[in-house]
Fold this protein.
Amino acid sequence: MCLAVPGRVLSIAETDGVPMAQVDFGGIRKEVCLQYVPHVQVGEYVIVHVGFAIQQLDEESARQTLANFERLGILEEEFREIPR
């Protein structure tokens, strides 16, 4: 499954001219491209799909969605590492 998941921006840096961020998804941290939402600031929430932040999201909506995903086990499934 490949969902769009809300996460909180922890830090922002530029990599090879591309804005990138460390994003927290309810305790799981991943590097995310901010190319589509370059105005986002540290502490704000974004919706992430396949490694790209595609939209900014308000904190309350993000927290509710993350809580529902966690309750349903979706976060674990979405971020599970697949062995090669």
About this structure: The first strand starts at residue 5 and ends at 15. The two ends are 17 Å apart (CA to CA). The chain is about 25% helix and 45% strand. Residues 59-72 form the longest helix (14 residues).
